[in-house]
Amino acid sequence: MAHIPEGILSEPVLIGGAVLGIAMLGYSLKRMPAESIPQTALLAAALFVSSLVSIPVGVSSVHLLLNGLMGIVLGIVAVPAILIALVLQAVFFGYGGLVVLGVNLVNLALPAVLCAIVIRPLIHNASPRKSFWLGLLAGGLGACMTGILLTSSIMLSDPNLIPAAKIILLTFVPLMAIEGVITGFTVGFIKRVAPELILPKEGRHV
Amino acid sequence: MTDVLYAQTDQSGTSAINYLDPRTRLLTAVLTTVTLISIDSLVILTGALVFAAGITALAGLGAFSVVRRLVLLEGFVIVLLLVLPFTTTGEPLFELGPIVPSGEGLKLAAVIALKINTITLLNLALIGTLSPLQVGNALRLLRVPGNLVQLLLMSVRYISVLENEYARIRRAMKARAFVARSNVHTWRTFGWLVGMLLVRSFERSRRVSNAMRCRGFNGSFTFHSESQWKVLDSITLTLATVTSVCLIFRSYMT
Hints:
Chain B: It is found in: Cell membrane. The structure holds two protein chains of two kinds. Chain A is mostly helical. Chain A has a single domain, classed as Arp2/3 complex 21 kDa subunit ARPC3, CATH 1.10.1760.20. Chain A has seven helices and two strands. Chain A has helices at 11-30, 37-51, 67-74, 78-93, 101-125, 128-157, 162-193, and strands at residues 54-57, 60-63. In chain A, helix 2 crosses helix 4 (78-93) and helix 3 (67-74) packs across helix 6. Chain A starts with 10 loop residues before the first helix and ends in a 13-residue tail after the last helix. Chain B is mostly helical. Chain B has two domains: 15-130 and 226-253, no CATH class; 145-214. Chain B has helices at residues 3-6, 22-38, 42-58, 63-71, 75-87, 103-126, 132-141, 146-175, 184-214, 231-253. In chain B, helix 3 (42-58) runs parallel beside helix 6 and helix 5 (75-87) runs antiparallel to helix 6. The two termini of chain B are 43 Å apart. The model of chain B has no long low-confidence stretch (mean pLDDT 84). Chains A and B meet through helix 1, helix 2, strand 1, helix 4 and helix 7 of A and helix 2, helix 5, helix 6, helix 8 and helix 9 of B.
């Protein structure tokens, strides 16, 4: 997962991120009934494990963000799922932190929510072949938006960081491509094997 | 990688950090982070780094594992630190052809590096030593919504299960002579692998959910709280708050 470490962002950006993050979290938690907790938890765990897999790209390798896929599989509940992945990484691995959590949540969850609202209903009605392209769109869009949000939160914090942030944005270009391709294949696979996993707009896993 | 989640953290009390309640540790971590973010003085930050190293030693974390985690810190921190001295406008330190690092840029890079390392050390010492169950329980006592805490604990519970599932699929792939390369076949295989993990976790979740309903799950877990708020916790939290307020006040005055 791409997250900003603690100690880089300025106070206004941190406060803004926290407020927006809590608002999104509150909204999506209201839409998560107690009966759906096991489903959400297991899918979130599966996506967490998947994001640890390193994928070879060119001479290097990347870890996937999978926020587009989270939006498609979990819907709006992707917000708490992403929060949990971030908390686990902050608390147990020391990546990211508790104060920067809000900004990191917004950077990853906002694209996921967009995919959940716009692309998920389309995939629900699409054929497996067409779902590949919609999945590709969701994966690419997720990584692209996260890259833009992440670099803009760094740029807003300190104008001196703008050149460095631009370099970071460049690293998102290959990630965008690979994220799109893999999400496309995953979504196509799910549509063939277990289409009931991708629900219509207001659906939730119970 | 996820073995950290299940590592037996020392909870027998031999490590001094375990005298503190998990709530105190979470709150102190947030307080110190907020304080450190507002500080721009190199002297205070260096002092804070020494203090953080002391706390880490007190928490009984092995020096090797701590250094390894600090080194693993995000690649883009390194980008920031390498680029900053050359892109920030200010007094040039020296000129080496087109390479002109500025004093201001170097200072900014040093401040950021100190902050990141100090905060990470404190986080590792204060909350990295907690078990997931302790974190969940502390969050619940701090009035974090119940379903969020349950989601956290259940995810943690099943991460190891799904990691085994993943390892099983990878073994099956290896048995079929799969080698990960940078090509479409590899990406399709990984895409299907992620899909397979999702499908299997979904099936498992149905069984888990049914089993939970059979046992009368009504949407709330019963927590056994072993942590107790002690005088030491109140003292630590008061001290941390006073220090934070003083330091934040000082950095806004100067």
